[in-house]
Amino acid sequence: MSTALRSSSTRWWALAILALTELVVVLDTTIVTIALPQAQLEIGLSDVQRQWIVTAYALAFGALLLLGGRIADYWGRKRTFMVGMIGFGIASAWGGLAQSGLELIIARGIQGAFAAMLAPAALAMVTVTFAHGKERNIAFAIFGTVAGSGAAVGLVLGGVLTEFASWRWCLLVNVFFVIAGLIGGALLLKESKADGRNRYDVWGAITVTLGLGALVYGFTLAEHGWDSIDTIGFLALGAGLLALFILIESRITQPLLPLRVIVNSVRGGAFLIQAVVGAIMIGSILYLTFYFQIVLGMSPLISGLANVAMTATILLSSPFATKALNRFGPRPLMILGPLFCAAGLFSFMGITPDGNYFTQVLPGLILLGIGFAQLFVPLQNLALIGVDPEDAGVASGTINSTFHIGGSIGLAVFTALYAGTVTSALDDGADQHTAFTDGYISAFIASGIAMILASVIAFFLIRGKKDDLMPTWDEDDAAAYAH
């Protein structure tokens, strides 16, 4: 075999390792969702702790993603990838062996922190390995497809492992992926990093991480009352730290998040809508899983499969959404997509303690799938409209970061609404399953309202013609970004 052929083959094997990494990082957002009811019973999680098993991962991942990208660029992408893999594997093993809720929450937070190193390093190495041309487009299509399927894979795999082994294997299974990633990474990946004098935005990283943490914790405390001193205090602290973060970013030469990336109205609108999408996919859908298992009594496996109807609809609807995008541009999709999602979420108002999946849930999942397909197709491109090549990485990182941060905030808000509704229903004499169902409905109503707001945001902020969507980089731009 010639050297050129061997080199080409190695690049595609490297892509397989990088795509596998992205799959693991994404599926870990959802894989524990199916396992939470069993874990709650086994180690005695409170409802708030149960929420934080998901929130800790999503919040750490979202808050540290931009810093992870900077570390990969400055310290070395392969080195960051390997360290991230090791840390992710150790945290996964700790979480799988955890004996208390606090242990599990801390392990999930550490998982998210190392995932924030892994994800941008993997994406950057795809960019470096496939710098331009047709192979680059194929590589990104494969990488994006694997990443997009991660949530569905997580639901099904989580159901299988919880049903036939234990909820602990939803975390321990990552160790096998990590071993494969470390071996493949050592053999196939090449080191690369940014040139020039690079400085870390340490204060920016500290203020945004603490600010988001305080904000999410404040929303979590709202379970005990929106007017309590603790709730107001932490929400105010979070807002103040985020304001300080923006001030810092406006005054330093190498900011973690260049403000020029987010002040553009189209990109800013895309980031806001992505945050709402994250709130629904991470926050609201969690309560549908609880409804399946706790109220309807579905097994973990059947519960995971029941959720896949939405993902299947997304995959089936995406080609039609792509055709509509090419014909009409992004604005109609971004306005109508959230309205389809809102219709699906409002349809869940009809669920009952003795409900029927096919009449009360499946139609809403199909509507959600149609709506999400219309959003997913243009969102990544909208985040890159008008972005200079040197800002492409941070813009892409921001769209991913807003998804997880939105999920963290959404889950905290929905949990507060759920808890308040359940307490009120129990005080009024409702049985436990009826009270739980009322709580889930309150989360779905709030989610539907959030999606309507996303449609309003799209109406006022999303512009752009279909010809504007694909950034036109030449080979020199690609080479400059790849260094």
UniProtKB/TrEMBL annotation:
It is found in: Cell membrane. The chain crosses the membrane at residues 12-36, 48-68, 80-98, 110-131, 138-160, 166-188, 200-219, 231-248, 269-294, 300-321, 333-351, 357-377, 398-420, 440-462. The keyword Glycoprotein does not apply. One of its GO terms (molecular function) is transmembrane transporter activity. InterPro entries: MFS, MFS_dom, MFS_trans_sf, Sugar_transporter_CS. GO terms for cellular component: plasma membrane. Its main location: membrane. Residues 14-466 form the Major facilitator superfamily (MFS) profile domain. The keyword Phosphoprotein does not apply. It is a multi-pass membrane protein. Keywords: Cell membrane, Membrane, Transmembrane, Transmembrane helix, Transport. This is Drug resistance transporter, EmrB/QacA subfamily. It comes from Herbiconiux ginsengi. The lineage of its organism: Bacteria, Bacillati, Actinomycetota, Actinomycetes, Micrococcales.
